[in-house]
Task: structure prediction
Amino acid sequence: MSRIFLTGDIHGEISVNRLSGKNWPEGRKLSKQDYLIILGDFGLLWKMQPDRNEVYWLNWLQSRSWTTLFIPGNHENYFRLKQLENVKMFGSEAQKVSDSVFMLKRGEVYTIENKKFFCMGGARSHDKAYRREFISWWPEEEPSQAECEKGLQNLQDHKNKVDYILGHTSSTSAVKRLGEICGQDFSSKSENLNKYFDVVCEMVKFKKFFFGHFHVDENIDGIFHCLYKDIIEIG
Result:
């Protein structure tokens, strides 16, 4: 029986402190049939060509006992991601980085250990004024209309019922509530994808919604859960 864990953004720097056996002893007990899902801003495929850092950490992940999955965030090199090989996985289509690392595509519904996951990665970079297009920022960071429509159609195909929603950001109300809990103004980060998730949350029956992006660890009213450094198991 596969085990499924979730954590937040890593931004291309696989924190040994977060995933080491000392700080995450549960990882030592896993197998390649167990999964760690990163909720966006994986960011390891960052340079236009693989560099020493990328190769080292991909090999490090390959040597771990688990399989790593991720949804795309806003801080990703989308040119590199588009080059990835499409593979059949979990009843849908994912993209292969290595034998132990895979990207879960936008708008897809995946069935892992009899649990259905709707995935819609991406968000808007609010620091893009300080970034360079196609070097440290890519327009594809936000889902296209076609990807959003595909997501809605796939949800309808699953009778608008899944177990979990995985996003890099979340619905407008969840982001607002997160700001209230954290004492920060996240409302300035409102974007079209938040409104899209408003529609999804209204039409879809689900148990929990997990997301990253905001660099905090907070459980929001038992339904929404923002993750950063915490690693939690679901199921």
Notes: The domain at 4-234 is CATH 3.60.21 (Purple Acid Phosphatase; chain A, domain 2). DSSP finds six helices and 13 strands in the chain.
